[in-house]
Design a protein that fits this description.
Elements: E1 2-5, E2 8-11, H1 20-46, H2 62-78, H3 82-104, H4 109-129, H5 139-150, E3 157-158, E4 164-165, H6 168-184, H7 204-219, H8 232-250, H9 254-257, H10 262-267
Antiparallel strand pairs: 1-2, 3-4
Length: 269
């Protein structure tokens, strides 16, 4: 064993300086040994650890398993096929159609037909005279339509001067039908003159026009008349008929009950 001292290398036993040739050989040997040791340490540090073949991976904690399952589910959902994503959309649209069919039963078939006819006449007039569909009409457009077309081309009520014109209740009924159709198309709430949005039938212009038309009819000699009252015998016949329909309604299956007139179900409430 040798130790380094300032100026020379000494032998442990003799503590005498070594010859220059021996000093060079010992220095080279120690340098080589240091390089080999450093190389082995570097190899051990950079060598990846390989687990034994029979060793299993440790189980993840419960929270980590849940998070991983949620991530896998999200990944599956985003990569699912179009047919899988389209199925709920088809069910939604089918249910929406059935819902609209139920909503349509809120009115009688005759009422729906009258509303459709009123809207078609307004739309035809608006396209011909204004160059736009009825959905884009403003309150002033409706006033022009009622004054120039609706009150001029229909009506069986004779005024004092012999002219034929619709009754005020007929004009109010037409405006009511048009108002419902505007609501169905998304024009809801009172008309806003500033933004041009809302229901044009729900406006001061239409309300004052209906009132003014009723006053004009009175000045022309129009006298409103009430409907002829029903007799006691006809009323009893109607009650008997409705009772028979209600009894028969209770004997039907749920599917058959949905196909019956709306008023039969109302009788049982």
């Amino acid at each position: 064993i040798t130790v380094a001292v300032p100026g020379a290398l000494l032998h442990q036993h003799s503590m005498q300086p070594l010859a220059p040739q021996q000093q060079q050989q010992q220095l080279l040997g120690r340098t080589h040994n240091s390089q080999q040791l450093l190389l082995q340490q570097l190899q051990q540090q950079h060598q990846p650890l390989q687990p034994p073949l029979q060793q299993q991976k440790p189980a993840l904690p419960l929270l980590a398993q849940q998070q991983r399952a949620s991530t896998d589910l999200s990944s599956w959902s985003s990569s699912s096929s179009t047919s899988v994503a389209w199925q709920p959309q088809q069910e939604y649209m089918a249910s929406l159609q059935r819902g609209h069919a139920i909503m349509a039963r809120n009115w009688q078939a005759a009422t729906n037909q009258q509303r459709d006819a009123q809207w078609e006449q307004l739309d035809s007039w608006s396209r011909q005279q204004l160059g736009k569909p009825a959905e884009q009409c403003t309150p002033n457009d409706l006033i022009v339509y009622l004054e120039s077309s609706f009150t001029r081309k229909r009506g069986r009520q004779a005024a004092a001067d012999g002219s034929q014109c619709p009754a005020p209740s007929t004009v109010s009924g037409a405006v009511s039908h048009l108002s419902t159709r505007f609501q169905q198309l998304g024009h809801r709430g009172p008309w806003d003159c500033g933004t041009g949005t809302g229901n044009p039938c729900d406006s001061m212009e239409l309300r004052t026009f209906k009132g003014g038309y009723a006053n004009s009819m009175q000045e022309l000699g129009y006298q409103p008349s009430s409907a002829k009252p029903i007799s006691g015998g006809k009323l009893q016949q109607l009650v008997t008929l409705l009772q028979e329909e209600a009894d028969a309604y209770q004997q039907l299956s749920p599917a058959q009950q949905q196909q019956q007139p709306w008023y039969v179900e109302a009788l049982l409430r």
